[in-house]
Amino acid sequence: MNLRRPLMAACGCLLLVPALCGLSGCDRDLDELNKPPRIHPGGFIVRPYLQLGDDPAGTRSGTIRVVWQTEDVDVDWSVESNDGSARAWRPAAAPRWRRVAVDGVLPHRVHHADITGLRPDGAFAYRLRRSGEVVFTAEAAGPKSSLLHRVAIFGDCGAGTAAERAIAFQAYRERPDLLLIVGDIVYNRGRITEYRRKFWPVFDADAASMAAGAPLLRSTITVTAPGNHDTAGRDLNEFPDGLAYYLYWDQPLNGPTGPDGGPIVAHLAGTEARRKAFRDAAGPAYPRMASYSFDYGNAHWTILDSDAYVDWSNPEFRAWVERDLAAAKNATWRFVAFHHPPFNSSRAHFGDQRTRLLVDVFEAGRVDVVWSGHVHNYQRTHPLTFAVDRTPDGKPARVADKVPGRWTLDNEYDGRTHTRPRGIIYVTTGGGGASLYDLEQDADPGSLQPYTEKFISRVNSLSIAEVDGPTLTVRQIAADGRELDRFVVTKESPRPLASGR
Ligand SMILES: [Fe+2]
């Protein structure tokens, strides 16, 4: 099997735009193929990390899924948890596993076990036994049912940079309940080999430090949205270990889907054997796990696939988002997250405006904040409403990926003294570790669009969203820990729940 030639050809093509793609290290990616993975003590290729699993109820059900990866060997695994309520370790559900056997990577297993019945609002410990012997123990934030919780959010991270490690460290310092990565999780093509080199070692570091990263994944439930780099390996002839997003993340499967190559799902390219190997390894996650929703505390999260192959004007896709938001009407907060920002002032990716096509749905669904990445800096808009320009027959007047229209800005909202926005706030938080975009615009406010209230492009950063009942406080934290921005959103206090007998 000669993998070298097509891989090099693909890299050479995309290297035409290195500034935007952050392409580098293609030859190193080649070298990683067919290499045995590093095995951590206890027999892990990837040590345990926490997921929602296919549970749209989020942590309200008191369940958290533990996922880990090992070599393809038969070993007796078990998981136990202890949340202090019974003063004893309780067995989790029996672990299950899927085999990942794709060309270019040694076969390995992705295991999972559900820890159920966790006590709300407390920490818990869990441990794994391998053939009866305890080989891994960690502590984690428990499920939140109360009104206070904290979410760390960034995109565009897994580039193998010092900035990525610093962002992981800063996120860990915040002790979030939830970590959300808004796409471009791993560069350059979301491959297994790239996860192993540029993602797991940073977010599953043994100890927390600016230089190394942090043991974030074992202690924090992580949810992800697919970005363009995460799905760029979908030609399995060129990248047999591509689309690792669907192999390694374990998230709700309640989103819209459709046929291969249709308006919602990209065409999966490759020989029949390679497509079968990938589908067997991904199981039900492919293709459905691209978009989904879940509840966390008093917030509802809608995660969408905004990659170019998805037609955001497709009626089924729109209808699913409408239904999802309508069903969440009693949540105090409705947040939507996807990779490509609708309202961006960077020169980079300015024309990527496809996601404006659903703004009317977001507004009707009373979304509070939309979170995106893709653009490698931090941007926050004024609260705004948007009416897309339409052709005489009523369709959006779209020109390629540009979606012109009229925005109305709430300029009174300042996030400090005026905290009740009229409109949706759009946050771009794409400074998770990849090379930054448009540094010169940081000192050039005249270059920004009128809807942009805050623009910080000279430093990598992440968002910390703290939900405390009817109050949302968002802080933007730089890679060195400085606070770059802060804004508050408040609502009327939630009405007490009706009670009776
Ligand atoms: Fe991107």
State the gist of this model.
The protein is an alpha+beta fold and about 500 residues long.
Mean pLDDT: 91
Give the domain tally: 2
CATH topology of the largest domain: Purple Acid Phosphatase, chain A, domain 2
* Structure class: alpha+beta
Give the number of helices.
9
What's the N-to-C terminus distance? 70 Å
Quick one: CATH superfamily of the largest domain? Answer: Metallo-dependent phosphatases
3D architecture notes:
- With 501 residues, the chain is of the alpha+beta class.
- The protein has two domains: 44-140, Purple acid phosphatase-like, N-terminal (Immunoglobulin-like, Sandwich), CATH 2.60.40; 144-490, Purple Acid Phosphatase, chain A, domain 2 (4-Layer Sandwich).
- Helix content is 16%, strand content 29%.
- It contains nine helices and 25 strands.
- It has helices spanning 4-14, 18-21, 26-32, 162-173, 192-203, 245-248, 272-282, 315-327, 359-364; strands at residues 44-51, 64-71, 77-82, 90-91, 96-100, 108-115, 123-130, 133-141, 148-154, 178-181, 204-209, 213-215, 221-224, 292-296, 299-303, 333-337, 369-372, 378-381, 384-388, 405-409, 425-429, 452-456, 461-468, 471-478, 483-490.
- Strands 14-15-16-17-21-18-22 form a seven-stranded mixed sheet, covered by helices on one side.
- A hairpin with a 2-residue loop joins strand 7 and strand 8 (133-141).
- The longest helix has 13 residues, at 315-327.
- It is globular, with a radius of gyration of 22 Å.
- 52% of the residues are buried.
- Mean pLDDT is 91; it is low at 1-27 and 494-501.
- The structure holds fe (ii) ion.
- The site of fe (ii) ion has 6 residues, from loops.
- Residues 184, 227-229, 339, 374 line the site of fe (ii) ion (FE2).
